[in-house]
Request: fold
Amino acid sequence: MDVLLSNRPLVSAITAWAIAQILKMVLFAVLERQINWRRLIDTGGLPSAHSAFVTGLASGVGVASGVQSSEFAIACVFALVVMYDAMSLRREAGKHADILNELLLLSIIQDAFKEREALKALLGHTPLEVICGAALGIITGLLIPGLYH
Reply:
């Protein structure tokens, strides 16, 4: 366990993800006026935990290995792919799920699909959610390594 805890990029990534998920749960609790513990593991919302996770990793790698390292380049490219995917493909899939859920509400086909559960529509992120998650990850990645000294 000590070996994992001494891996600064890993600790940065996990810490950024956890902070994002907790912030997301708190924000939704304020907006919905109730605590929904499922928000701790749900996708979508502000800030993007995916973005926080991968930018926490990338900034942790940058601090640990240097921004000129191949590891940092790989982590940055990985982060960009994940964030792009969150804003494009996953967001579009969420829009499709939302439309399909609306269609299921139509009385004509409602009886045929009453056994089905609604599709999850909150899958992807807006650019603002991704930027906030990325900022959280970068800040966490820069601060976490400082705790080791």
